[in-house]
Every structure is written in C-alpha cells, then in structure tokens.
Design goal:
Blueprint (H helix, E strand, L loop, with lengths): L12 E5 L3 H9 L8 E4 L6 E4 L1 H5 L8 H7 L4 E3 L3 H16 L5 E5 L2 E5 L10 H9 L9 E5 L2 H10 L4 E4 L5 H5 L11 H9 L5 H5 L3 H19 L16 E12 L2 H17 L8 E10 L4 E12 L2 H13 L7 E9 L14 H21 L5 E5 L11 E5 L3
Helix pairs in contact: 1-4, 11-12
Length: about 400
C-alpha cells in the first residue's frame, strides 16, 4: 500500500484500472486456469488479443496467429471473447467507484475515474479510500488504483500500482513521477506520437521540457493539453453522467433463449410497460433509452439513444425501441434482455434550432393540425414525400408517399 504523504489537497481524482479486463474476467469466471498459460482470441478465432504472463513466458504475443501460439506453447488454453461477461464486470467497477463518489466517469471498460472532492471527511486516509473501493471488486480481477490531483497523473499512477494496491501522487511530485511515462499514453493522435518519436521525444519528461508555445504551434490545442498533462497539470475534467441514479432498469432472464425477433419484441414490450409503471417513472419523462441483449455464448448487443425531446408517451417510446430491434443482428439466441429508461425528468421540453424559429413555429402548427385531423378521420390524411431511389431512371420510382404521423 503506497501513500507518499498525507496531502488531502492532492486527492481530487481517483482512477481505477484493470489492464487486460477481458482476460481477467475469464480467469475470474474460470479460476482453475489461474497460473496456467492462457490466451484470448479475437472474434474470428485467428489471432491472440491478450495473453497471461505464463503464456508470454513461452513467447506468445498479442497479434500472433493462434497456430503460431500453439506451436510455441502446446499446453496453451485459448478462450473466445465473451463481451457480455466483460460488460457485467465493467458495470461492477463503476458501482464500486460510485460507492465513494457520486461523480464517476467510465472512460472505457476497465478504466473508471471518480471525483474525490468533498470525500476527505469520509475517507481521511488513502487506505480507507482504497478499502472502500476494493471491497466491491473480486481480487482475481487484479484492480489497480491511482490517486492524484489531476486526471492524467491518476491514470499513470493506476498503471504503476500493484494489483489490489493504490499509488498516491501528491501535487509537488507529479512532474517527477510522470517524467518516464511514455508519450503514447497522452491524448495525442497516432501521427503526433510518431512525429514526436522521430524527433527523439519518447517520454513525458522530454515533452514537458519543451516550450509550450512550440508544442502548440506544431500540434495545436491538443498539443497544449498534452504538454500540461506531461507536467502533471492536466486540466481535462471528468464527464460524469448526471442521470445515472435517475433511471429505471428492467431485466428478463430468458429460458429457453429467445430466438426470433417477434419473441424479443414481445418481451421488450412487456418490459417497457413494467418500467413505465415503476413509481420512479410515473408522471416523468425519459431522455435516455438503453437496450442490452446477451447471447447464449457470451455475445453482447447494445444500443443507446439520447432523446432530443423527453418522452413520456408509451407509444412513442415503443416505436423508438422497435426501430432499434426490428433490423438488429443479435449474437445468437438471447438469454438476457435489459431495458433502461434513464435521465428521468419531471419536465417535458423541446430542443429547438436557434436559427429557424419561424420554420419551427410553422412545423408545430402543421403537426397540431394533422393531430386534429387524425382524431376526426381515424388516420392521418396528410402524406410526406420520402426519397427511395433518387438515382432510378424512372421518376415514379425515385420517391414514395408515406403517412405523415407527427
């Protein structure tokens, strides 16, 4: 357990990292493989994407074909990726960080940041903070925790930490701590990193020694941000989702697995009804729809849609869900369905275009008129022209008339 000195001001950001998350998830799920040579293949089972230390000892490397890997290590165990399993443990990491802070950002699966400002009274020592985070994470995942004043420093600290341990970097030690970090860890594109390598700049300390104006002149605004990060002064803020706690989640375990789109749509329709009857969702509007389907063999299908206008009408929400599902390609028979109604709000508003108020006003008048006509005649008497095959040589095949239903 590493605590450099008790400096509460340097505890603004915590970073929880699990390198090789997909492989670690498989080892947690199959503990009998721990300590043996194991490799994870890509989806088409052609190349190695991750390998354990025991496999690397025999020469197995990422990017190697499976045939070459087995030739080097005949006792190698090759596992197929299971995105659903990874998503399950990745959600657990987010929940572990939410236990200590309400402001959490999942930068990617296996990499989670938390804003620690205001938690000093709850966790006066670094050991208290790490204990509260690690208690919700299986030790076999080998989680690593970094704590620092700024985001990039906390990220590098997490990568330097030993499994189930924490590295705390005070403000005054950040520049020295980052000096040997590779510049490939910075938020620079590949071309910029290659250009810096050609100039002989491979470490953050070398980049930080350059004048800021020279770096910005060559690489623009991202170069200036990277220069600050290399000096331990990264100003990139966290981007937590404010709607995480304001949500309703419905989950269905399918036995036998769902195969047809009709069965999936039927299950989702029932889930939507239950979600809207939830006390938290009553008389409230939805701004986020998230769908997740897990395949029988660990495959994962996910869709997320942020609604421009908050919706509380069941029919409109169902049309949005049905559109996402009808032509989706699922990873085989589905054993688990999840529907999330997020960013619940008590207000219903429209996000208008700032530059066409008159056009919006006319469109609203048209929509209102069509709704009245639909109530009177039972169907919309207005149609809209939709381009179908604009390149077709016959004009009548280029467009189609569809019912206008606002």
């Amino acid at each position: 357990m590493s605590t450099l000195r008790p400096d509460l001001r340097s505890r603004s950001i915590a970073c929880l990292a699990i390198p090789s998350l997909a492989l670690q998830c498989e080892l947690v799920d199959r503990p009998g493989l721990i300590g043996s040579p194991v490799a994870l293949s890509d989806e088409v089972r052609s190349r190695v994407t991750e390998a354990t230390r025991e496999a690397r000892h025999y020469g197995v490397r990422v990017g190697m074909t499976l045939r070459d890997a087995v030739a080097l290590c005949p006792m190698l165990t090759i596992l197929e990726p299971r995105p659903a399993l990874v998503a399950k443990y990745a959600d657990g990491l987010v929940q572990a960080m939410e236990a200590v802070s309400p402001f959490v950002e999942e930068a990617e699966r296996g990499l989670v940041f938390a804003d620690l400002r205001g938690t000093e009274g709850l966790y006066p020592r670094i050991e208290d903070l790490s204990r509260a985070i690690f208690v919700g994470i299986p030790p076999a995942l080998r989680p690593q925790l970094g704590v620092a004043e700024y985001r990039f420093t906390a990220f590098i600290a997490a990568l330097h930490a030993q499994p189930s341990e924490v590295v705390h970097v005070p403000v005054g030690d950040a520049a020295e701590f980052l000096a040997d970090a590779p510049i490939s860890r910075l938020a620079l594109n590949t071309d910029a990193v290659e250009q810096l390598h050609l100039l002989g700049i491979e470490r953050c300390g070398q980049l930080a020694a350059l004048p800021r104006h020279a770096v910005e002149a060559q690489f623009g605004y991202p170069g200036g941000i990277a220069w600050l990060a290399a000096r331990g002064q990264d100003t990139t803020p966290l981007r937590p989702r404010p709607w995480v706690r304001e949500r309703v989640v419905e989950v269905v375990e399918a036995e036998p697995p769902l195969v047809s789109h009709e069965a999936i749509l039927h299950a989702l329709e029932q889930m939507l009804g239950r979600a809207l009857r939830h006390p938290m969702a009553r008389r409230r509007f939805v701004r986020l729809l998230r769908l997740r389907a897990e395949g029988e063999r660990g495959g994962l299908w996910e869709r997320e849609q942020v609604l421009r206008e908050p919706q509380g009408d069941r029919d409109r929400l169902w049309r949005l869900i049905r559109t996402q599902v009808e032509y989706a390609s699922f990873p085989g028979p589905l054993t688990r369905l999840s529907l999330e109604l997020g960013a619940l709000t008590a207000e219903s508003g429209r996000q208008h275009n700032l530059f066409s108020e008159e056009q919006i006003r006319r469109r609203e008048q048209l929509d209102e008129m069509v709704r009245h006509l639909k109530v009177r005649f039972g169907q919309s008497p207005v149609s809209r022209v939709v381009p179908v095959e604009p390149w077709h040589r016959l004009p009548e095949h280029r467009y189609a008339l569809l019912e206008y239903d606002p």
